[in-house]
Amino acid sequence: MTEEKKPLNFVEKIIESDLKSGKITTSQTRFPPEPNGYLHIGHAKSICLNFGLAKKYGGTCNLRFDDTNPEKEDIEYVGSIKEDVKWLGFEWDGDVRYTSDYFQQLYDWAVYLIKEGKAYVCDLSADEMREYRGNLKQPGKDSPNKFRSVEENLTLFEKMRKGEFADGTCSLRVKIDMAHPNMQMRDPVIYRIKNMPHHQTGDTWSIYPSYDYAHGQSDAIEGITHSICTLEFVEHRPLYEWFIENLPVPATPHQYEFSRLNINYTVTSKRKLKQLVDEGVVDGWDDPRLPTISGMRRRGYTPKSIRDFIDSTGVTKVDGVVDVSQLEFAVREDLNENAPRAMCVMNPLKVTLTNYDIDKTEEMSAPVHPQREELGSRVLPFTQTLYIDKADFQEEGNKKYKRLVLGKRVRLRNAYIIEADKAIKNDQGEIIEVRARIIENTVGKNPEDGIKAKGVIHWVSATQNVDCEVNLYDRLFTDEAPDAGDKDFMDCINPQSLQTLTGCKAEINLANPEEELPYQFEREGYFFLDKCLDKVSDVATDKLVFNRTISLRDTWGK
Ligand code: ATP
Ligand code: MG
Predict the structure, then answer these.
(1) Within a domain: residue 60?
(2) 366 and 437 co-located in one domain
(3) Which residue range forms the structural domain that includes residue 446?
(4) Largest CB tally within 10 Å, which of 99, 297, 490, 509?
(5) In CATH, what number is assigned to the domain containing residue 138?
(6) Which helix (H) or strand (E) holds 83?
(7) Hey, which of 46, 84, 98 would you mutate to test ligand 1's pocket, going by the most ligand atoms within 8 Å of its Cβ?
(8) Does residue 277 belong to any structural domain of this protein?
(9) What is the SS3 assignment for 413-459?
(10) Residue 1 confidence (pLDDT)
(11) In degrees to the nearest 10, what's the CA dihedral of 104, 110, 114, 120?
C-alpha cells in the first residue's frame, strides 16, 4: 500500500478536519515521557504517532520531559530517552522541554486558583483522603479544610513552597465536587510536599505539581493542539478540560486517547522492566531480551523495522494484544533486504581435504548480498582444513538430510563440492574430524561426472578465520500474557532465554565488522555486533561477540 492510499487513522481524521475548518493552522504535538526509566516499544508507538503527525502535516512535535516526580526520576533516563528518540529517526522542535521549566508558572496559576476560591490547602492524610473520597457507588465528603479563607490558603501554600512543612503534612486541592460521578473530579490534589531536590531545578522547590495539573497547562504553554495519550486517561479528560477552562492559559489544547500497544510474551511497563533490571534477571536496560528501545538496538533491530512494525499495528481506540511474531516479521523483512551476508560456524567440526595442498589458498568470491550487486563481493580464503557445523555432518544420512554424509557429496557455499570419506573419533566416540576430498572443477559448476551434491552448507577456513562468541536469545517469558490478571511476571521467566556459544568461527572479513547493521550469517539468522562493554569499567573489550537478532524463519514453538 502506498502512503497516500492508506486509510487515515482517527487522529489523522481529526487533524485534517481541524485544519480544514480553520480551527488550527498547523498541528502541534508532543511526546511527554516521564524520565523514570528507559523507553520501550510501547513508547515507540507514541513517538511514531506524535512525531509522525508533525511530519505528515508539516507541524511540529516537542519532546517534553514530564518531570514532576523527582523521587523516581533520574538524569540518566533523560539522556537515554533523547538518544532513543533520535535513533528512531525523529527530531523534536527546538530545545528539549521540561515540565519543570514551567514550575513557576504552574505555581502562579495555583495561587490564582486559590484567589478565585477554587483551591484550598487540605490537612487530611493520604488515608483520610481516601476515606473521604467515597467510591463509585458512594459520594465522597468535603474535607474539613475546604472552606478555609483565601488568606489562610495563601499563607499555608506559601509555607508549603518554602519547605516549612514535612512531606505529607498537607496538600493543595482544587474545589470541584466531592459527589462527582467521575472520581477524578472529587477535589483532586494538585500539589504535594516533597522536600527533595529535583534533577533539573535543584533545591528550588519543596512542592511538586501532580501529573493532571501539570500536563494540560504545559500543553497550553507550548501551544499543543492535539495532546495525545493512551486510553487510561479518558477518565482524566474532564479534569484536563476543567483546568483549561478555569485558568488564564494562553491556548486551549485538547486531549485525545488511543489504545496502548500490548505485545504477547512481553511486558511493556517501565516499573516491571526496572524490576527485571534491578533484580539482575537481565543484564541492564539495554539487555537484548528486553523490549526497550536500547535493548532492541543492541539486539540488531533497525529503526526502520520498529517504525514499520508500529505502522502495521494501526492507531485505534480498541485495546488488543499484538502477536510478537509481527514484530519479528518486520525486522526479518528489513534485514533480509539490507543485511550483508557472512558465514559463521557456530559449532565447528574440522574437515581436512586430503586432495588439497596444505600450502594452497584459493580466493573464493561471494556476494555481500545476493540480490544487491551494487554492494559488491567479499573474498573467502579456501584452504586444506576447514570448519563446518557439527550439525552438518552425519556418518549415515537419510532422504531428508541434505548435508554432508560419508560417501556423499555436498556443496560448500560459494566454493567446491566435497565428498566425505572418513570420520575420525576421539576415545569417547565423538566425531572430531572429517576427511573429505574436493571434486575438481566444481566452483560455480556442477561436477563433470554428473553426480550432484545433495545440499549446500556453510564453512570457514580453519586457518584464516576469526574467533567469536554468539548470544542466542529466546523469548524472555514462557507465558504469552506474563502480567495478565493476578499473574506475577517474575514467575514466567524463561530460564533458557540466553544461550552463549563460545569458540565460534567466523569468516575472516569479520575481523573488521560492520557496526551499523546486523549480518545475515548464512543459513543461521541475523546477528548484530555487540559493543561488548566491560561490566565494571564500561570500556569496550576486544572480544568479538554477536547477538542473534532473529532466526531466518519463524520456528518458535515448532
Ligand atoms: P509505563 O507504564 O511503561 O511507565 P507510561 O505511560 O507511564 O508507561 P510515560 O513516560 O508517562 O510512560 O509515557 C510517555 C508517553 O508514552 C505517554 O503519552 C504514554 O501514553 C505513551 N505510552 C506509554 N506506554 C505506551 C504503550 N504501551 N503504547 C502506546 N503508548 C504508550
Ligand atoms: Mg507514566
Answers:
(1) yes
(2) yes
(3) 348-458
(4) 99
(5) 3.40.50.620
(6) helix 75-87
(7) 46
(8) yes
(9) CCCCEEEEEEEEECCCCCEEEEEEEEECCCCCCCCCCCCCCCCEECC
(10) 46
(11) -120
Q: Which residues pair with residue 254 across a beta bridge?
A: 226
In this structure, are 49 and 86 located in the same domain?
yes
Tell me the per-residue pLDDT of 40-82, one tens digit each, with 9 for 90 and over.
Answer: 999 999 999 999 999 999 999 999 999 999 999 999 999 999 9
**Does 183 lie in the same domain as 48?**
yes
- Interior/surface letters 76-103, b for 16+ CB within 10 angstroms, e for the rest: ebbebbbebbebbebebbeeebbbbbbb
Whether 156 is covered by a domain: the verdict is yes
Q: Which residues line ligand 1 (CB under 6 A)?
A: 32-34, 42-43, 45-46, 229-230, 260-261, 268-271
The answer to the question of residue 556 being in a domain is no
Q: Same domain for 118 and 200?
A: yes
Report the DSSP pairing between strands 431-439 and 362-367: unpaired
Burial 453-467 (b: 16+ CB within 10 A, else e): bbebbbbbbbeebbe
Asked if pLDDT for residue 2 goes beyond 70, the answer is no
Q: What is the pTM of this model?
A: 0.95
Return the bridge partners of 362, or none.
382
* 487 classed as catalytic: no
Ligand nearest to the CA of 42: 1
Quick one: which ligand is closest to 66's CA?
1
Q: What's the gap in Å between 37 CA and the centre of ligand 2?
A: 10
SS3 content of the chain, % helix, strand, coil (to 5): 30, 25, 45
Q: 198 CA distance to ligand 1 centroid (A)?
A: 22
Q: Same domain for 140 and 189?
A: yes
Ligand 1 atom nearest to 230, measured from its CA? 20
CATH number (domain holding residue 323): 2.40.240.10
Question: Catalytic site residue 260?
Answer: yes
Contact 532, 283 (CB under 8 A): no
Query: What's the number of domains the chain is made of?
Result: 3
- Between CA 454 and CA 218 the distance in angstroms is 67
- pLDDT tens digits for 169-186? 999 999 999 999 999 999
Indicate the top mutation candidate among 29, 41, 43 to test ligand 1's pocket, ranked by most ligand atoms within 8 A of CB: 43
Same domain, 437 and 326: no
Residues 119 and 197 in one domain: yes
Q: Decide which of 412, 440, 458 is a domain's last residue.
A: 458
Q: Which of these is catalytic: 55, 141, 260, 454? A: 260
Residue holding cell 504535538?
29
222 has a pLDDT exceeding 50? yes
Specify the pLDDT at position 558.
57
> Is 97 known to be catalytic?
no
Q: Which of 16, 34, 433, 514 is catalytic?
A: 34
